[in-house]
Amino acid sequence: MTDDIQPSKASTIPLDEENMEHIQQMNAFDGLPNLNRKIRVLLVATRLTIGGDTNVILDIASYLNSHPHFEVQLAAGSVPAHEVDLTYQAKERGIPLIHIPSMVTYINPWHILRSSVELYVKIRQGKYDVVHTNNAIAGAAGRLAAMLAGVPVIIHHVHGWGLQEDMSRMTKMLYINSERFSATFTNRLIAVSKPNIEKGLAYKICQESKFKLIYNGIPLEKFQQDIDKRTVCLELGLNPESKIVGMIGRLDKQKNPLDFIQAAAMVVKKYPNVQFFIAGDGPLRAECESLIKELNLSQTFFLLGYRNDINKIYPILTLTALSSLWEGLPVVFQESMAAGKPIVANDVDGAQDVIRNGETGYLVTPRQPQEMADRITTLLNDEELCAQMGHSAKKIAMQYSSEGMIKQIESLYLELLREYYGTPSSI
Q: Which residues form the domain of 359?
C-alpha cells in the first residue's frame, strides 16, 4: 500500500493550511479552463435506505450540489417494502433525483440489463463528465451504461463486497464475473477499508493500481453535542440510572442482531443493572421480538426502530456493540468513537482499520455471542477502562471527517478528468 491510503486529517489542519488547501483547490479547477461549464456528476445507488453507504452518498451529493464548479444528480431504484425508505432525505437536501424503476436489490441479469438501458438514456441526456456508482447492482448497471454512453470518468464506490455465506456457487460466480467485467472499464474503485482492497485482489477483480482507499467520513461535530441523558432516556423508555449498551443497525442478516440479543442475555446474568437496545428496523424484527420474549428480556432489551436522531442517542450509551457478519466500513464505528464511546464488535472486514483492539474497544469472533458478552461485561465492570477507551476513541475519530472524505473524492474526480483529457487545451 502507498501513502495515499492513509485516512484524511483534514479536520485537524490549522486554518492557514486550510487556506492554502483552498488556493490549491482553485488551481486544480484552473487546470480545466476550457470546460466552460460546471462538471456534471451522476451518482448512482441501488436504493436509499438505512445504512452508512446512504449517509456517504447523500453527503457527497449535498456537497457537490452546493459547489460552484459541480452539477450533480442522484439516480436510485425503489426501496423494497420491508426496508426503511430514506429517499425523502435527498429531496429535503435539494438533491435532484432520477428514479430508476427497474433497479432491484438482488442479482438478476435481466433487471440489471433493463436498469442499464434506463440509465444509458439518462446519461446520454445529462452528458455527464463523471458517473460515480455505489452498491453492487447499481455498480453493474451504472458502469455498463456509462461505458456505452462514453462517459469520460467512471468510478465505483466499494462500500463492501456483496458476497454472502449463503449464496449459491452460481450466484457467487455471476457476481464475481460481473465485478471483473465492470472493472475493465472503470477508472477507479474507491475502497472504504484495506480489507475491501485485499478481498478485491483475492477475487481478482482488478489490479491494485485501480483501487483508491478513501475512508468513510462523518460530520464530527454532529456527534459531539451535549445532551441531558435523563431526558433522552425517559423519551426512549430507558432507565437513566442503568448502564446502556446500544447497537445502531438494520435488523437483517448482515447486521446479525440475534447474536447481539443472545449476548445481552448472557451479560444480564452477571451484570443486572444494564439495558440494551437496537436502533434500526428490518426484516428480522419479528424474530428479534420473539427471541427477546423467549429469553425474558422484555424489560431489558428494546427495539427502538429507525431513528433520525442517532446523534442524540450516542451520548447516553456506556458503550456501542455491533454483531455484523460482514461490513465495508460502517459509519457506526466512527459515530460512536466521535461521541467518545468504546466499541465491542465482530472482527470482520474493515473493523480493524478503525477499532484498535484493547485500546478503543474490543474485536470479537463472529457468531460467538459469549465472547461478545464477556467483553461487554468487562467494560461494564471497569468504569475507568471504559472511560479511557472512550477518550482514545474520540481522539482517533478526528481523522474521519466528512469534509476530509469528500475533498479526497473531489480531488479524484479532477485527477481522472485530467487523465482523460490529457491536457487542458484539449477539453
A: 220-397
